Amino acid sequence: MSERQITITGPELSYQDGDTTKSFFDSESALAELLAEEVLFCNTGSFMGRDTVVLFINCNDLFAWGTADAEEFTEAEIEPLWRAWHADKGRGVEQWVCLRRQLRPQYVVMQEWKKAGKWTEALEALPERPTDNYGNPKIEPS
Fold this sequence. Notes:
This protein has helices at residues 27-36, 78-87, 92-101, 107-115, 121-124; strands at residues 4-9, 12-17, 20-25, 40-47, 50-58, 70-71. The termini are far apart. The model has no long low-confidence stretch (mean pLDDT 86). By secondary structure, it is an alpha+beta fold. It has a domain at 38-124.
């Protein structure tokens, strides 16, 4: 009879049966952890004409000062989102959102990331944003 061992580390699960190891990712555990860490927040949305709970990524002040901003995400994005947060709990999710939106953060955030060594080639490749004389993003009137 082979020896079985199950290892659970957050949402990452592995199952070893003899020489065979299988790895799994538990999206529900990842969501619970991201909610507990206030990376995500709940709101209300409409589904089939009824109100329901929806989850968003908190992006306040990432792209412009004084904005209550949020990013939606799909079930398929839970694992890469959690991995971005797990890799860098300070800025990983914010960088993930910038890359997802194909949009650089506001100037002051960009300078902070550069100073901290968190600015990557992928972020540098994002299009430049027009700014005012203070480095704040210019927002076109709607």
